[in-house]
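Data card: per-record layout.
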Amino acid sequence: MSYTIPIGPYHPALEEPIHARLTVDGERITDAKVFVGYNHRGIEKLAQERNFIQTLVLVERVCGICSHSHSLTYAMCIEHIMGAEVPKRGQYIRVIVEELERIHSHLLWLGIACHIVGHDSMFMQIWNDREQTMDTLEAVTGNRVNYAMNTIGGARRDIDDDKRKLILAAMDDLEQKMGPITHYLTSDKTLAMRTKGVGVLTTEDAVRLGTVGPHARASGVDMDVRRDAPYSSYNDFEFAVPVQQSCDVYARVVIRVLEIYESIKIIRQAVDLLPEGPINLGNKMPKVPAGEFVARHEAPRGHLVYKVVTDGGQTNHRISIHVPTFKTAPTVPVMLKGNTVADAGLIVASIDPCFSCLDR
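The structure for this 360-residue chain is written out next.
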């Protein structure tokens, strides 16, 4: 006999509101539907009443974990409409903060994954190591979240020699600490039993549903905006784009571990090669002509897209924000089918959802 089991929209394993309606036969999930849209904050509408500097503050609040990604993508739109070129030093500083943000986001997710499978000691260890990245972000930007490092035309704060040394020392320490974490996440039998073969999203389904980011790369889709459509001088750096073929929750764990190592590599290059010169074009209110632009960005969760339309006035005529979770959430029903109810929370969390972004 089939039963319907609702999970969410408020559930202890899922800190953000999502409703998964499971049809089960015993413990096995035979069908699933996912419902989103429990929050609506009206950020796109509010942006039409803000000037361009105020909008940077606003869009950083779309998401607390990837706030730098949102303000940077918006700034890139305005800069292209203005025809402005960001100084090289400002671009490198943006990259450093972006990759620190990616590391902190991935470590946050890895800790949560361990918590969901019941390994709280590893959860606390990973989050303890994540604190060093948060401390580095605070030392560089002045904030642990919502870093306010972007302005129209570049970066708002410079990185001096002392901060460069601090960043490099933090990366050396993090790389050393990642050794035991990587060994555990890739060799522990209990974790393997909870993740291998669980929540499979085939490459074909990933392409069909338009999946992006680490979620897509864990399903064999070789894509990364930093490499495929470089911005902020990403074409100056050497880095790999990890791809996994097992297409399950285990692959999503491995992808994020590998991407942390690549972020460390990018940060080291950006710090070592940090160019001389100004970090921005000046902090005066920019004069933005009428125009429109679409900017693409590889946020920690995947492909982030902003479209900004201006009319020559002091405010945005229209902003459209297309977030990664909008592309990854439709994969959840596909992944849930055939798995057990006990795995449902982990499978939903494996996309690294941000319904704060989705319900902007």
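Known properties of this structure: The two ends are 39 Å apart (CA to CA). Residues 149 and 157 are 6 Å apart (CA to CA).

See the next section for split statistics.
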